[in-house]
Amino acid sequence: MSTTESLTIAIDGAAPVSGLWQAPPAARACLVLAHGAGAGMTHRAMAAIASGLAERGVATLRYQFPYMERGQKRPDPPPVAHAAVRAAVAEAGRRASGLALFAGGKSFGGRMTSQAQALAPLAGVRGLVFFAFPLHPAGKPSDERAKHLSAITLPMLFLQGTADALAQLDLLRPVVARLGPVATLKLVADADHVFHVPAKNGRKDGEVLAEFLDAAAGWMATL
Fold first, then answer.
1. Half-sphere exposure of 118 toward its Cβ, with a 13 Å CA cutoff?
2. Among 88, 92, 166, which residue's Cα sits nearest to residue 130?
3. Diameter of the chain measured on Cα atoms
4. pLDDT at 197
5. pLDDT given for residue 1 in this prediction
6. Is the pTM of this model over 0.90?
7. From the CB of residue 39, how many other CB atoms can be counted at a distance below 10 Å?
8. At 9, phi and psi to the nearest 5?
């Protein structure tokens, strides 16, 4: 059974933020897990990802971006978000000594993590895990948000639903193909941006999340 510990993370150029360290007794890896734009680290979706990964032998460090810590809705500018990512990765590196270290997050959090890595390598990180990478705003299909990914040489795992309104498949698939062998795409039919599937699919949301978590844990184990 995993334990969860509250902590505070200092950030260069910004106020400290809250974090949650959740580790199973015999963890094999650690994922630094950033939240999406509209909900913080304690949201049930984030808690479900962290607990599900713990059941699969993966520790997590969840953390707040500064704007979420202040209770604001407008996300931080990229330099501030990148600094938060780096601070969280450094904290996880201290706590996860001896564990394989990975970074990523849900939607906005994954995107900010990838931008930070593209600008300068995140210390000790072996790969990036994206839960629903937001390739474009809803209703505005584009692959502009993926341009920086070509600067990343680490392995990347994209966990996506085929009905994600923020990542049209006809745009996402070519992006992943251009990235070559460093990129892996895991798709689940009919899942949307929050990994919800319609009732007619015959599957429950928990089953979909479990499939994604199995894929994430298995992928991290290979690295």
1. 16
2. 166
3. 49
4. 93
5. 73
6. yes
7. 16
8. -115, 120
Cα angle 166, 126, 153 (rounded to 5 degrees) comes to 65
Contact 169, 141 (CB under 8 A): no
Burial (Cβ within 10 Å: 0-12, 13-18, ≥19) of residue 129: buried
Terminal C-alpha separation, the chain: 24
* Residue 27: alpha-carbon gap to chain centroid: 18
173-190 burial, b at 16+ Cβ within 10 Å, e below that, comes to: eebbeebeeebbbbbbee
Question: Which tokens is 104 given?
Answer: 């990523």
- Give per-residue pLDDT as tens, 37-79: 999 999 999 999 999 999 999 999 999 999 999 999 999 999 9
Q: How many CB atoms lie within 10 A of CB 154?
A: 17
